[in-house]
Amino acid sequence: MKIGLDLDGVVIDSEKTIRTYLEIYAIEKLNGAAIVNYDEPKMYSRYNFTKDEQEEFIQKYLLQCSKESSLMAGFKPVYQRLKDAGHEFVVITARGGYNQDMKTDAIRIISEANLDKEIEKFYWHTSDKLEACQKENVDIMIDDDWQVIDKLSKNGIKTLYFRDTNMKKLPESEYVKEVNNWGDIYRVIVDMCK
Predict the structure, then answer these.
(1) Could you read off the pLDDT of 38-96 as tens digits, one per residue?
(2) Which of 61, 93, 140, 177 can pair with 7 through a Cys bridge, CB separation 3.0 to 4.6 Å?
(3) Are 160 and 72 in contact (CB under 8 A)?
(4) Tell me, what DSSP letter sits at residue 10?
(5) What CATH architecture does domain 2-13+70-192 belong to?
């Protein structure tokens, strides 16, 4: 099976770090501005920030959030088990499009885990994950962005929606299965291969 992987919120636990710094920024810089749109998958777009405030947050904190992030709990042992079972992996991520240093830092995290030679292919700063999934003929894509999951599933690509508790809930179907950790992912993929 060929498995597509998003990085942030799936392989790299950057989302919780970003949420922490967003709250710090909102409280200290914007007098406690609160979240106004929980359905927005881009964390900094959830707040009622102006474009300038969003840009300031990105410039001041985004790379710092990446540098403080690490692999998701359970990723490495599950990845190794799936790899040993013959599964292939391709990373399909938007990372690196807005800020090249974000790509460099992701490579650092993956290299420190000795996975840089293990993953077959990388698609960086990919805005259209559907196109990459179709080109690579992935059997299943794991992503934490409900908009990506919705688009892929509507185009016949099976997905695992790595949903954090504060993300929009999607109905499950033949093409959408919700998971919350790498143990869930392992169980679903093993069951699919029976």
Answers:
(1) 777 776 677 778 889 888 988 899 889 999 999 999 999 999 999 999 999 999 999 98
(2) 93
(3) no
(4) T
(5) 3-Layer(aba) Sandwich (3.40)
